[in-house]
Amino acid sequence: MFSPEGPRLSELAVQALSSVERGYDLLAPKFDHTPFRTSDSVLDATVAALLESGPYGTGLDLCCGTGAGVDVLRQVCRDSVTGADFSTGMLEVARSRRRPEGPDTSWVRADARVLPFGPEFDLVVSFGALGHFLPSELPGLFAQVHKVLRPGGRFVLPVVAPPRPGSLTHAMLLGFDAVMRVRNAVWRPPFVMYYLAVRFGDLWHGLENAGFRVAFWPLPEFGRRRDGSPRVRLVVAEKGARRAPLTS
Known about the structure:
- The chain is an alpha/beta fold.
- The protein is about 35% helix and about 20% strand.
- The chain has helices spanning about 10-15, 20-25, 40-55, 70-75, 90-95, 140-150, 170-185, 200-210; strands spanning about 55-60, 75-85, 105-110, 120-125, 150-160, 210-220, 230-240.
- Strands 3-2-1-4-5-7-6 form a seven-stranded mixed sheet, sandwiched between helices.
- The radius of gyration is 18 Å and the shape is globular.
């Protein structure tokens, strides 16, 4: 699961016993060599879908980490791109990465639950960050995203179909979540990172309750499951009306 350039087991143990912020500060130099980073295949498929649905002017990568989502935005936004994260270490790595010509890019240290922006973005994306928020925090998070989008702006995030209950993958993720719950019950500060805490229906209804109109765009590159549902799709939440219709 980890490349030779990735963190050692001892480093992961120290990170897991830290706060989320401190843990990612420590992990940042090796984060891109872990399975926690969103795969290039998902990033590329997201770019393709957004290029078809644009154009977009300004973009925000929420919980940007080392900037992989910023690189997505730089391919689909014309005016400017912002990466926001509360880990100083992750932002330092993101800033240091060399990038080709593109729109102006800025980096902001910010808590996603209290974003320091007004309604100035046409597109907000987030990759692999929802597991760092408790279900009770999602309404506030979605309200923050709604606040920083212009009318007609979109909040887009890829979601992978959950593993079938009883499968090995489901058992592994369930076990991981159980270990994290025990860790957080006996150790402070907490490290919030769960894979199965946010259910698809809760995500859908939470976005609608925040004022979004929600659609789901299958990413055909990943095929479909036996029941016909997409293996990977984009959740596309729109604020208000937009020139192009929102289709699924």
